[in-house]
Specification:
The chain has 382 residues and is of the alpha/beta class. The protein is 39% helix and 19% strand. The protein has 14 helices and 15 strands. It has a 5-stranded parallel β-sheet, with helices on both faces. Strands 12-11-13-14-15 form a 5-stranded parallel β-sheet, with helices on both faces. Helix 3 packs parallel to helix 9, helix 3 packs antiparallel against helix 11 and helix 9 packs antiparallel against helix 10. It starts with 15 loop residues before the first strand and ends with a strand. Bound molecules: fructose -6-phosphate.
């Protein structure tokens, strides 16, 4: 007899499974399985016969792990947020072991990571600066570790890593610690090296990520950055009246909004199939949307093997626009109301060079269809 937290873990050995409910206790011996409820009364449970093979079970019916994990984003974000909230709707940073005075006294935050986690860090920078009013630097770990960076005991160092094992990020963390920085590890894998070596760990609860190209871990890293920024802002007193409650409500609404976006997938797949033979694709945006463009472009090239670059939308005219030819796919990301018109004007510029435009914006911004040939809408958030 085996006990496990998930069916795939034991499917190689058994086919007959008892599914255990919350608050039940199981007494497991080599020859028997007894299940008791919270009142300690034995309960009868039907055997669940698993008919699928281990491979299909692991992918839960999806064609591949990346697709499965894309669909697990709402759950991962919900877990990451609810594990950091108390019943009154307050963010709790238990285990971060940082006093109010320490949070008030940081004069700088340094976020260091690689690849996609670095892109999450770019978003973290924007929200921590904007909400908590602390200056934030973001660096790729392989640069930071050879740079002799200006950090000291008043610099909060945050290492972001899904695996918690990336060698450059780990080396950067060790360097920061040697310079006296308090270190938070923002990791997904429990007990990983970064989680062990950081002064405190803030876990993302994306669940195991099997796909090499990260998706749900990135989303949960963003949620974790927003939680940190909002709580730092509360402690430092930089929020307006009611803003804390508003931000928490917005965070809690995210999983449902992601579900709505995923529901549009067939239309997106249809568009993707039309551009599957593209030679190049460019992603442009401003502010937060630029950070998202960098991640979109990385994921795009990593998975499709199509050449892709991301640019700050305002930089297109300073050189990169010369790469745009008739039919080149340019994805414009425009989710922030105050930057919408600016980004549209950059899209018009590339369109005049013959680009085919895809827009990614929030519901309600339908005027984008005057400019873009195809648009994906996402729900509005703060
Ligand atoms: C891209 C991707 C990589 C990782 C990077 C850091 O899809 O997965 O860019 O984000 O290698 O890995 P972690 O987060 O494990 O440190």
């Amino acid at each position: 007899n085996f006990i496990a937290s998930d069916i795939p873990a034991i499917l190689k050995h058994v086919r007959k499974i008892y599914l255990i409910e919350n608050n039940e206790t199981v007494v497991l011996t080599a020859s028997s399985v007894k299940i008791y409820n919270a009142e300690r009364r034995e309960v009868h449970r039907e055997v669940f016969n698993v008919t699928w093979d281990a491979d299909a079970a692991e992918k839960e019916g999806y064609d591949h792990f990346m697709l499965k994990e894309i669909h697990e984003q709402p759950k991962g974000i919900r877990n990451t947020i609810t594990r950091r909230m108390d019943e009154e709707g307050n963010i709790v940073l238990d285990g971060i072991r940082m006093t109010k005075e320490e949070i008030e006294n940081f004069n700088k935050v340094y976020i260091v990571a690689c690849g996609t986690a670095y892109h999450a860090g770019l978003i973290g920078k924007t929200v921590i600066e904007k909400l908590a009013g602390i200056s934030v630097e973001v660096d790729v770990a392989s640069e930071f570790r050879y740079r002799d960076p200006f950090v000291d005991e008043n610099t909060l160092f945050i290492a972001i890593s899904q695996s918690g094992e990336t060698a450059d990020t780990l080396a950067a963390l060790r360097l920061a610690r040697s310079k006296g920085c308090p270190v938070i590890g923002l990791c997904n894998v429990l007990g990983s090296s970064i989680a062990r070596e950081a002064d405190a760990t803030m876990y993302t609860w994306a669940g195991p990520e099997i796909s090499v190209a990260t998706t749900k871990a990135y989303s949960t890293q963003l949620a974790a950055c927003y939680l940190l920024a909002t709580e730092f802002a509360r402690v430092r007193g930089t929020l307006a009246d009611g803003q804390y409650e508003h931000l928490v409500t917005e965070l809690e609404a995210l999983p449902e909004k992601i579900e709505k976006t995923l529901a549009d997938k067939e239309r997106i797949q249809w568009f993707a199939s039309k551009y599957a033979n593209a030679k190049d694709a460019f992603f442009i945006g401003r502010g937060l949307d630029y950070a998202v463009a960098l991640e979109g472009s990385l994921k795009f090239k990593e998975i499709s093997y199509i050449h892709s670059e991301a640019f700050a939308a305002g930089e297109m005219k300073h050189g990169p626009i010369s790469l745009v030819e008739n039919g080149t796919l340019v994805v414009g990301i425009l989710t922030q109301p105050d930057l919408f018109e600016k980004s549209v004007s950059n899209m018009v510029e590339v369109k005049s060079r013959g680009a085919f435009l895809m827009g990614l914006t929030t519901y309600g911004n339908y005027s984008i269809e005057d400019t873009a040939g195809f648009t994906v809408y996402v729900p509005k958030t703060d």
